[in-house]
Specification:
seven-stranded mixed β-sheet; FAD/NAD(P)-binding domain; 3 domains; five-stranded parallel β-sheet; about 475 residues; globular; about 30% helix
Length: about 475
Amino acid sequence: MADPYDLVVIGAGPGGYVAAIRAAQLGMKVACVEKRPTLGGTCLNIGCIPSKALLHSSELYHLAQHRFAKHGIRVSNVEIDVPAMLARKDEVVKGLTGGIVGLFKKNKIEPVYGTATLATPTSVKVKKSDGGEVTLDAKHILLATGSAPIALPFLPFDGKVVVSSTEALSFGKVPNHLIIVGGGYIGLELGSVWKRLGAKVTVIEFLSRIVPLADVEIGAVLLKSLTKQGLEFQLETKVTGAKVVGDKATLTAETKDGKTLTYEADRVLVAVGRKAYTEELGLDAVGIKYDARTGKVATDDHFRTNVPSISAIGDLIDGPMLAHKAEEEGSAVAEILAGKPGHVNYETVPSVIYTWPEMASVGITEEQAKERGIDYRVGKFPFLANGRAKAMDESEGLVKILADAKTDRVLGVHIIGPRASDMIAEAVTTMEFAGSAEDIARICHAHPTLSEAVKEAAMAVDKRAIHF
């Protein structure tokens, strides 16, 4: 019998493949099981990467149609080639997933393609994609199987009319009317794509606001912006029924005040959340504790389940379902197994919504500060007063910084505006080093840059912003 692997990872998404690579760097013998024919998990194949490719392509199309003329660039008869756009998206995905194959080879990690089931606390049975079965013995097993879209009982996915985010990345043509059930980031991003390309987009949200976990003020700015762009929102409304006939869907919904609404659409995107993916994993067989409703696996501070030889990370465990959170956990697990102090600071995990303008945040919201009874100060600065934003004709949005009133330590940073996804990194770094608003304010920021808005917001905490 061959020597067991030091680590067998189940799932080759951002958490799993990063864990595998880090473990290999630390001298471990590693295998990684993946049921898809390509590595990279949901994120690279049908999530983060393809959606950003489409967002960028659709943004360019929108700019050519509506904004180029303001810059003195005259174009006419601009057309959209959806198949070409999708082909480019697929090429981006192919390049990145192929890159992970190269990283596995470089780090001597064995990829095993097939469906994995826990056989014992130290072995994994794999039904191989090319036929047959193989059992992998391991000193330690890491579960990194990610999550899957949640379906509504009365609105099941059919992959054609009623779809998940997966199918919404590959519509063969622009829908006439796309209804999105759910006002979270997935629906808003994909809704932005198809709205820019010409679809009528209606978002139906049960709650009183979109992006419910965001800072209320920042979320309200996003709602106003998307409404201005032409997306239609029906808030405080519950979808109560649906009927699909041919290539059309009829939805009924009920408002907070009891009014019944009826919608017809040729595509319905159900984006009400995701559930941890544990199908065929065999958790019960080895006695792993998990929540039957959410699928979340219970772990300790070192990511170990109640079965000491098995750990779990990413969407399988508590915390935000974000690729970068899973990556950090993957590295931490590998380092802990190697006897090093692996750690993830969940207080500084940033979140981003890649609409335009982008929305990014880290730390607590103003509402959370109030709920916790924290004495805080707020500094804000609008991009309207930022030189680079004005030069770019991208002056929508603001930077908002929350700081402790006594210590000035940064508690949270919320940005809605151009390239917010990149600018949030400065806030994360500051918070990781327990920095203050004064620290940001005293740092020399290049001029003219968008990041100067972060500096000015930090100065505004002390009521001394210069340019507003």
